[in-house]
Amino acid sequence: MTSTLADGSFTRVDELRALEAESVHIIREVAAELERPVLLFSAGKDSIVLLRLAEKAFRPAGVPFPVMHVDTGHNFPEVIDFRDRRLAEGGHQLIVASVQESIDTGRSREDAPNASRNRLQTRTLLDALEAGKFDAAFGGARRDEERARAKERVLSFRDEFGQWDPRAQRPEPWTLYNGRIKRGEQVRVFPLSNWTELDIWRYIELENLELPSIYFAHERDVFERDGILLAVSEYTQPRDGEVVNREWVRYRTVGDLTITGAVRSTATDIAGVITEISAATVSERGETRADDRTSVAAMEDRKREGYF
What is the pTM of this model? Predict the structure, then answer.
């Protein structure tokens, strides 16, 4: 996992600890500068790492802010089970912001039954942030995931409507972060901005972090649609001409299961996943998220509207 180099340069563990220290610093700075932060948690690998970093930032005390999950209702059961257990074991306060509730109350409108609810998360998130009077929301996004996310600052300023303008972001020279905002404004905070997918997995290995089982190879009934392997479920059923096969797959990312695809894999442990990712040439969102593949501008459009 590590090697000591004769020239005294960083070992792999040193690099991970440097990233860890940077992220912990960001979390502490925001907790000191802003009045009411919240940590967004999907129970995906990035938010699991983010939660561990928040725990480290305040030990031996507990994390001084709640955890929020924006729940589309179209979830992998393994992920929800893991979410509830992990947060209960850590003694964290969980806030569930429900997209279904937004639909039921007329705050959002579903285009069709069992359609992707990714866009609908925006309204649910903004309402939940307003209801909780949260002025900062920690997220697990990384710059290497997608081009719109590469435009983000570590502290991403949002106006009083929760909207993002990439041209109005604040400079962050020498890792100096400006958290000053007016009432009603907010910042989204991305402590993992400088991490890569491979960094995330190596840190999971280093810290021996538990993950939802879907991240590792398992047998599942899947069918192919637009080049993506979708799981057969209550919300995703094959159409005419789409053939269901039972295959060994795993997931590189966690999301709404109506648009989150699997990858064929035999990696049943962290070492196997790291080997596969080291050889990958496409980011996890580019390979397995249908909504990001259909339009280059899809993510940026959603972020301008208030998406995380």
Answer: 0.88
